histidine kinase
Amino acid sequence: MRKIPVTRDGRKDSEILLISSSDVVKVESFRENQLLIHTLDEVYYFSATLDSLEEWLYEDGFRLIDRTNIVNMNYVVNYDSNSGVVTLGVPGRKRRKQASAARIHRDHIINVMEMLRIASAAKKEGYPENDPSHDQLRKLIEESQDDPYLRSYSMIHAVYERNRAEKRLVESEQRYKSLFENNPDAVCSLDAGGRIITVNPAMVKITGYAAEELTHKPIADLLLPGESTRWEKHFALALEGQTQYFEQTFIRKDGLASIMSFIHVPIYVDGGINGVYVIAKDITERKRSDELLIKSEKLSVVGQLAAGVAHEIRNPLTSLKGFVQLLKSKVNDYDHYFDIMLSELDRINFIVSEFLVIAKPQAVKFQVKDTASILLSTVALVNTQAIMQNVEITTRLNEPLPSVLCDENQIKQVFINVLNNSIEAMPDGGVIVIEVFAKNGNIVFLFTDQGVGIPEERIPRLGEPFYTTKEKGTGLGLMVSYKIIENHHGRMSITSELGRGTTVEVSLPIAQPEP
């Protein structure tokens, strides 16, 4: 609404007041270039001609209804066409004012009152997609084609259309804002130079940065070093109008890497592209689950193979053992050799049994066992081989240590596999340090060697069947170890640095006392 500069007494040197045109009910001419501005409660003075003021206030609903009066049609509550008097007021208030209207304006005033009533009701109730108010206004205009005051109706309809468009724009902005702010996926907009303009709360949560830290920051700064070229390629294609779908590693504020799925959507403004919307989803856990699924599928295939091989070996093994025992009972002086053969056959049978761990869950016996005794007895078994390789095994136990619920033989098998790998990784000798401590309801075993280390890119594949870093290895040892720890509801992880050594962490849940 416009502001009208008025005075209280009409003198040129009087204080000028600004009143809103929405408070004015009528404007009355009392002398040349001197007007009285009426609100329902006050009267002010204004210097202008009646025609010029009407032109200025036309869009606000003011109409010249006779040669001395301009009326704010929004305040018309009654019109007596016989006397030519317009009554001005507000519903619910007793205060009223009147203005004279020329009889020639009768139909004009009635039409304007009806059109303003329709427009006011539509503004209050909203503007639906199929707005009946729009059709009513258009019909009134069509019925007044020969009316000399058609400009008044067209102006009301134009203001109505503008308000309707503004309302739709506000609703559209609110819907967009809701979609942007409440989207569970990270969303940000980039300018044509790749700098971040806006970010939603999900983007802040995923990256760990505050919104102020991200604004005007080049998004390439959040990528892994060396991966910006790939990002720039997709960004350039998006600026050419091609929506892009790809995955890339993202660096959070805390330094952790997350695998993100990105969608690049070009931003069109006035027929041109001036930026890109980026929609991102953290798929790190999904990727990890996919890798576990692939690894499980490989385990299943190797398990079937292992079961078949074990079956085929055991059949002739049984026959060999039977014939050796028969020969032992019939041949004298060779008992020592027969005992060696039987011992080796038993050893082959044991290896086959261990091989079957790959194929199917074994009938393991879970018992509450002392953590320290399992580890120390395993170290005693391996220590001879370590000494021969010039390797020293040092244990650091933060006693007293709680017990674990486990199959002792299987846990020993895991420890032997880990220690053997560490010994083989130090051909020139070194030290293996074993630390054991309780943490967050688990017993943690840390095996740290001073070996050659493992390349970082190869660590994720450790534990896959037939994948090994050793020249003559099969990869089955670590695979079986992972499976055993998994069956014990524990966790096994490997970290390494080339030339510095490897650390294997085995975590097992502490045994809970029986109720």
Summary: The mean pLDDT is 81.
